[in-house]
Amino acid sequence: MKRLVAVIICAIAVGAIVLGAYLAGLFSSEETPYEPVIDPADFSGPIDNPYYPLIPGTTFVYEGISEDGAERNEMQVTNDTKVIMGVTCVVVWDRVWLSDELVEETYDWYAQDADSNVWYFGEDSREIANGVVVSTEGSWEAGVDGALPGIVMLADPNIGHEYRQEYYKGEAEDMAKVLALNASASVPYGAYDNCLQTRDWTPLEKGIAEHKFYVPGVGLVKELQVEGGSGYMDLVSISTG
Length: 241
Description:
This protein is mainly beta and 241 residues long. The chain is 10% helix and 52% strand.
């Protein structure tokens, strides 16, 4: 009997350690160590988190104003994949125009775990000037040079949850915190009063932050800079096929 009890206690302890490590990957502040546990077996299927659906063939178009002028952003979910840390990631082609001139092109890598958390595994980013790539600064890949994946959308977000969206020390350290679950936002694509609202920032750029608004079944609908400047991006269209 004592041996059985010892085995049970050991199993519970191991389970607690695993759960703790898993949760450490979900919820993290600037001060806490970041040690996400990535098991490729935990990732499969489409990215269908209602707040962040990335179905191949879908294109999201955003328009707004930044401190540099009129901005347009197109995010196309491709049929391409890339294996990172043993996880098959969906490739999203992201392009940014300023005053009708293409200034940035990025290939982002996402995957969804079995609990429907959407993870971000890095990006291949290219800054463009006059049609020529002038910089790849900002590029990083999880598993390379100490970089780690982060979560861009929780499966079950609740007010107060704080989490890392990416982690490449000194280069990519975006973070987010859930502020509301029923916020309102009006954009050209529609008006909503059931938005998930987050505060997004990076410790690498103090005094700068933005709020993002997500709608179930739609995804990201609005970005609004609230600290360190002004600007916004609104969803104007979604197309498929």
